[in-house]
Amino acid sequence: MKLHVDLVSAEGQIYSGSATMVFVAAEMGEVGIAPRHAPLLTRMRPGQVRIQQEGQEEQQFFVSGGVLEVQPHLVTVMADTAERAADIDEAAAEKAKQRAEEQVAKAEDKVDIARAQSELAEAAARLHMVKKLRSGQ
Asked: What does pTM read for this prediction?
């Protein structure tokens, strides 16, 4: 039994295909979705989306957040932004994290602090993912 998975962002469709299992960084923790999963609607946090297909290499993506919708045979990942894990530049991710840390340190009002912390969480999640992939874990 399989699921159909659509991963889309504002830039367009990133992935569409079948899967035997999908893992998503949901707001309250990682969610594993198998065929016939109960319907679910939840927000996602910055992190990894992994799509497993029988007999094929696992597909991995980074999403900056968004919404996850699950139906018994359909998973829709509506990401704010998304990119294939293999396309992430580690040096650029490290620089983005450093810039975000500087913004947190310079932020003065609550809105600036919240925005800077959000950018830092996204940059840290992207960097963590790329380092994890490089180390083979």
From this structure: 0.75
